[in-house]
Design a protein that fits this description.
The protein is α/β, with parallel strands linked by helices and 463 residues long. It has three domains: 212 residues, FAD/NAD(P)-binding domain (3-Layer(bba) Sandwich); 121 residues, FAD/NAD(P)-binding domain; 105 residues, Enolase-like, domain 1. It has 14 helices and 22 strands. Strand 12 and strand 13 form a beta hairpin. The longest helix is centred in the first third of the chain and has 25 residues. The chain is globular and about 65 Å long. The structure holds flavin-adenine dinucleotide and 1,4-dihydronicotinamide adenine dinucleotide. Flavin-adenine dinucleotide binds next to helix 1, strand 2, helix 2, helix 3 and helix 9.
């Protein structure tokens, strides 16, 4: 078993790298420890969470907005086993699609845990040796579950277990108001679960635009989500049927206790390099366990590369995919390029939140002079027609050159709308360019045009 390239891990980083390597003529192997391909993203991440977000959104609209639209429904109820079954079918279709792509591209797939023996040899499940000239580590990440939180996979859970709950919980406590907490919290909240969130910092969606995060929090509160910001969890205990969470203000003060059906730990993810044999090839990691790579994504072993969640940067599927193509093309002697500043981020709550480029906080910290334009969804005809008037678009542009430096959106279809900003920023457009492009009416995208107009001499038309 000898290959030009062996990829370890079949998530979006690994399988995309393998396909691009095969396209470029390399004899390629893919090693995956689980039975199905697709990694976190397809099996227990992006795809199943979006399937449940879509299902729960249909239920929420049917129970909360249909009547205003003039649609009456009787005996509406949630069929949780069916919802989970549909989610699993969506996952199956996607993971089978990856197996098909492996066959189509003549990539040899090996199932088992890969571990380096030396810089040209990997052991699969400790026994079968596989040799390759180059390796790509794409082993991804796992949820962080600190020991005092007593993660038991039963009542104290992570996103992985939450995606399979087939009886609607009465109450759920989330630890962490980040992307996973708010997305999965939204799923259960919309279906009727009482959801309380304990978050260490004083805001939700740390790192994203403050105004956009505040707008989302306002809507989630209206939907019934309860927030305990600036609070730290001191103990979590799971029994057979309940989870008990104790927490107190970060600044000190009285502690509180909540009993719930589940406690969902969503406080971030750690790079997954367990039993990978990194010590046998001298690969270094940061103190947080991420594999250290240079700007070519090469590790300290010259024929071994790493990408995706296991290295520094945003833990996002599309970032991993871009890096997969980047490494493969470099191995073929090409000179690919990724602008990590232009990797968009999306939170699939409703309203959605999306973002690309710099936030105001980052621009202030870097001392970059900037101007901003904001536009509210309330003033959009399209938003009134669909009853989606919560939201805003913020455009940040350089004060002197007018180059767009960041775009941040909370609102209906923000996930798809951000692509206009990504494309324009790739071509280094100015806010004036953005404002002068004709946007179809009535669409939510008109808010981007108006925010760009607001950023250039405060000349939004409908403000
Ligand atoms: P992974 O997808 O984690 O894949 C790594 C693979 O390597 C796994 O299959 C693992 O089994 C395998 N592996 C590990 N070690 C070994 C070994 N030693 N031998 C063999 N195989 C091994 N991102 C988005 O962009 N959009 C979203 O909407 C989104 N939603 C998410 C929702 C949830 C609930 C979660 C948890 C994550 C979500 N993410 C989302 C993040 C996204 O899933 C990750 O950023 C992405 O999967 C990272 O890809 P990767 O290829 O680096 O690693
Ligand atoms: P996160 O980093 O988004 O949020 C974690 C939150 O937990 C932070 O707000 C943090 O302040 C808080 N926190 C940390 N320790 C805490 C403690 N002890 N007590 C209370 N709060 C605490 O992490 P999350 O939500 O687990 O997601 C992990 C990653 O998965 C994300 O960084 C994201 O890249 C990826 N993801 C992406 C999605 C998307 O693109 N739509 C969806 C889901 C996950």
């Amino acid at each position: 078993m000898s290959f030009d390239v062996a990829v370890i891990g079949s998530g979006p980083g690994g399988y995309v790298a393998a396909i691009r390597c095969a396209q470029l003529g390399f004899k390629t192997a893919l090693i995956e420890r689980y039975k199905t391909l697709g990694g976190t993203c397809l099996n227990v991440g992006c795809i199943p969470s979006k399937a449940l977000l879509d299902s729960s959104e249909h239920f929420y609209n049917a129970s909360h907005t249909f009547e205003t639209h003039g649609i009456k429904l009787k005996n509406l109820e949630v069929d949780m086993p069916q919802m989970i079954k549909r989610k699993s079918e969506v996952v199956d279709q996607n993971v089978q699609g990856i197996s098909f792509l492996m066959k189509k591209n003549k990539i040899e797939v090996f199932h088992g845990h890969g571990s380096f023996k030396d810089a040209n040899t990997i052991l699969i499940d400790g026994k079968n040796e596989l040799k390759a000239k180059n390796f790509i580590i794409a082993t991804g990440s796992k949820p962080i579950t600190p020991a005092p939180f007593n993660y038991d996979k039963n009542r104290v859970i992570t996103s992985t277990e939450a995606l399979n709950i087939d009886k609607l919980p009465k109450k759920m406590v989330l630890i962490g108001a980040g992307v996973i907490g708010l997305e999965l919290g939204s799923v259960f909240l919309r279906l009727g679960t009482e959801v309380e969130v304990v978050e260490f910092t004083d805001r939700i969606l740390n790192g994203m635009d403050k105004d956009c995060a505040r707008e989302l929090k306002k809507v989630l509160k209206k939907q019934g989500m309860k927030f305990h910001l600036s609070h730290k969890v001191t103990s979590v205990k799971g029994s057979k049927t309940k989870a008990t969470v104790e927490f107190e203000p970060v600044a000190g003060g009285d502690s509180q206790k909540i009993e719930a059906d589940y406690c969902l730990i969503a406080i971030g993810r750690r790079a997954y390099t367990d039993n990978l044999g990194l010590e046998n090839v001298g690969i270094q990691t940061t103190d947080r366990g991420k594999i250290i790579v240079d700007k070519h994504l090469r590790t300290s072993a010259s024929n071994i590369y790493a990408l995706g969640d296991v290295i520094d940067g945003a833990m996002l599927a599309h970032k991993a995919e871009e890096e997969g193509v980047f490494v493969a093309e470099q191995l073929a002697g090409q000179k690919p390029h990724i602008d990590h500043n232009l990797i968009p981020g999306v939170v699939y709550t409703w309203p959605e939140v999306s973002s690309v480029g710099k936030t105001e906080e980052q621009l202030k910290e870097a001392g970059t002079p900037y101007k901003k334009g904001k536009f509210s969804y309330k003033a959009l005809g399209r938003a009134r027609a669909s009853m989606d008037t919560d939201g805003l678009v913020k455009v940040l542009a350089h004060k002197d050159t007018d180059e767009v430096l960041g775009v941040h959106i909370t609102g209906a279809r923000a996930a798809d709308m951000i692509m206009e900003a990504v494309a324009l920023m790739e071509f280094r457009a100015t806010a004036e360019d953005m404002a002068r492009i004709c946007h179809p009416h009535p669409t939510y995208t008109e808010a981007i045009k108006e925010a760009a107009l607001a950023a250039t001499e405060d000349r939004a038309i409908h403000a």
